[in-house]
Amino acid sequence: MRQIIFKYGIIGGILIALPLFIVIPNISSIGFETAIPILLVSMIISFIAVFLGISSVRKNIGGGYIGFRSALATGITITVIMSVIYLLASIILFHLITPGFNEKYNSFILSQMKAMHRPQAEIDKFNADAAKQVTDKNIFVSAALIFMKPVMFGFFFTFSSALILRKKEFTATLN
Fold first, then answer.
1. Regions of the chain short of the pLDDT cut 50
2. Which domain holds residue 25?
3. CB 42 within 8 Å of CB 152
């Protein structure tokens, strides 16, 4: 069972991290308007590995049956593996390969806020939060925030997959 979970966790982790290494270094030519949807869609597609992993455990380990709790535990474990790979890829990418990305992203968001004619107080609050984020280089807070994004998607996919794939063995009792 561990082998199946690690296999699908690593496959999903590669599928979630690979688009980061393709899109983020080329952000100036792609543009944020195109890059953000590409990265979100690729993240959602990568979580198909959770469904496939639970399905594989059901087929290969459970003999065609899996309970909800077992499916949920399998999916959560696959999600955690995928999220750790995503976290490592993000740290490598944003701190080593493209260290100025956050400033570019913040200026993009600021220009979008101004284009949508947001109130000046909201823009000032964003500027203050962005400046604080740049000065606070706490790697643990940054890692926790990065880790949470795929975990949220993963829990949704895990719960949905566990509901869809649960299948208890039917035992008939005759009196």
1. 172
2. 2-165
3. no
